Prior knowledge:
By secondary structure, this protein is α/β, with parallel strands linked by helices. It is built from 10 helices and 13 strands. The chain has helices spanning 11-17, 33-36, 59-68, 81-97, 111-123, 182-190, 208-215, 217-222, 236-250, 264-276; strands at 2-9, 18-25, 44-50, 72-76, 101-105, 130-136, 153-156, 170-175, 194-200, 228-231, 255-260, 281-286, 304-311. The strands form 2 sheets. A 7-stranded mixed sheet has the order 1-13-6-5-2-3-4. A 6-stranded mixed sheet has the order 7-12-11-8-9-10, with helices on both faces. Helix 4 (81-97) crosses helix 5 and helix 9 packs across helix 10.
Amino acid sequence: MQIRSVRQCGFDDLRNRAEALIVACGYEHRSQGVTRVIENLPPMRQALCFREHPRELARPENEAFFRERGFTLHDVGTEETDVVQGITNEALLFASRMNRGVAFDISTMTRSWHGAIIRQLRNAQIPSDVETFFAYSPSVFMPPSFTGIPNEFVSPVTGFASLSTPDKPVAAIIGLGYDKEGALGLQQLLDPALTVVLVPNSGEQDPFHPVVQKNNRMILERTPEEWIFEYSISQPASTFGMLASIIGGIRQSHRIVLASLGPKIFGLICLLLATKFTDVSVWRISSGVHGKPRDTESDLSRIVVLDVIWEP
Length: 312
């Protein structure tokens, strides 16, 4: 399937039109955030429970939370993307029979699971339009961890490694996170001819923004001002449009690598755009099972929903 339209919507649209909901059940209290604010949950409810860290932090509490609300719990490893694709396909078929949509809470899913969901949507054999809702709950601010855990994965997301013309120079479009100089390390690895930097900034009250700037000082100083763009996580449809424009402007002259080290909604947008621009690669950077679990709470005042309609 291919994307027909992308727009931002409210929770009323999700509540009124979603027949299935897929969430992640991890070790963060944030796993509960989106489900807590959805009244009248959809009939099909699936929770992807991380096999890793099964007793850490809020994981037992989260399992009880979702079980009490009628979710079917699935034990899934962070790299078991085929399982995620299968559950996604089941939800798509179930919802399409009712001519209704499927909702995903992407807030605490891994980027590999995001890739599996978008890959299944791209490959789905459904004869009618499908509506999907991607809900994202930012976390309440916590200072970044300074424990130097090495990254286990610095590579293309499965199914999103482009085979574009190798004689073009590489352009790296990097969404910054707030971990110290992670983007600089990725830039040094890719050695791109062009670096485009996207900085999350949700306004004067955004506590993450000054930390992002401080911890990415070196790459920001090395990048020409015309290739630095700010975006707001509260406006994902606008970010989709801006990033599509950037890609469209340089893809004839460069091989493009998209990478998100920051908010997961930006990483999801990268994957959505890779279904539109099939010559674009999407990379992920992750410490995998070696990452130290940290609990976070949802900032319920900043939840956003992206409404994406797919057509055969």
